[in-house]
Amino acid sequence: MDINSILGALTAGSAVNDMSKQFNVNGNQVNSVINAALPALIGAMQKNTATESGAASLAGALASHLGDTSVNLSAASLTDGSKILGHILGGNTNSTFSALAKQTGVSTSQVSGILSAIAPALLGLLGAGQKSSNTGIGGLGGLLGGLLGASGNQSSGGLLGGLLGGAMGDKNNNGVPDIIEGFMK
Fold first, then answer.
1. What confidence tens digit (pLDDT) does each residue in 18-33 have?
2. For residues 111 and 100, is the Cβ–Cβ distance under 8 A?
3. N or C: which terminus of the chain carries fewer CB neighbours within 10 A?
């Protein structure tokens, strides 16, 4: 499992077209939101694994969404996705949506909708990766860090800098977008 396979799964089939119609944005904007948001969401989940209770909570969420590996726009999925985002991002939810909206040129409500649509599938894909790699609760931070190119130490930009191209701001020029660094502190 790598970040490119996750991106591919989240944008496979008619998912982008369906989200484009549902949230009144073009397909390129949907892809832009997902590409920009994925490292932020994974970084926030990695931060949540810093405590034993956070790691256990994430492991439970991954297990409960194990079968959700495709984007579903039903009302129940969007409600579930919104709750998932609240757990992942905590008090940073609105600021994350605002930063992504500014970067991608879509409204915060469109960002919220797109991310709510992909959140259950993201957990399902990560849960499948956890299961296939036989990673326990204690290894979740390393698994997520590996996706970000951080080798589990939460300090390297790795793939993040290249994937986002500094589009989310990188004031200290270390290759890690500022919004991601906020989650890693």
1. 999 999 999 999 999 9
2. yes
3. C
Q: What SS3 string covers the chain? A: CCHHHHHHHHCCCCHHHHHHHHHCCCHHHHHHHHHHHHHHHHHHHHHHCCCHHHHHHHHHHHHHCCCCCCCCCCHHHHHHHHHHHHHHHHHHHHHHHHHHHHHHCCCHHHHHHHHHHHHHHHHHHHHHHHHHCCCCHHHHHHHHHHHHCCCCCCCCCCHHHHHHCCCCCCCCCCCCCHHHHHHHC
Q: Cα 98 from chain centroid?
A: 15
* 39-89 residue pLDDT tens: 999 999 999 999 999 999 999 999 999 888 889 898 889 999 999 999 999
**Rounded-to-integer distance, Cα 56 and Cα 136, Å:** 10
Q: Which two tokens stand for residue 23?
A: 């949230």
Tell which wins on pLDDT, 67 or 116: 116
Structure tokens at 106: 């879509």
> Is the pLDDT assigned to residue 174 strictly greater than 90?
no
Q: Which of 41, 29, 34 is nearest to 7 (CA)?
A: 34
For residues 172 and 54, what is the distance between their CA atoms, to the nearest angstrom? Answer: 29
Contact 122, 45 (CB under 8 A): no
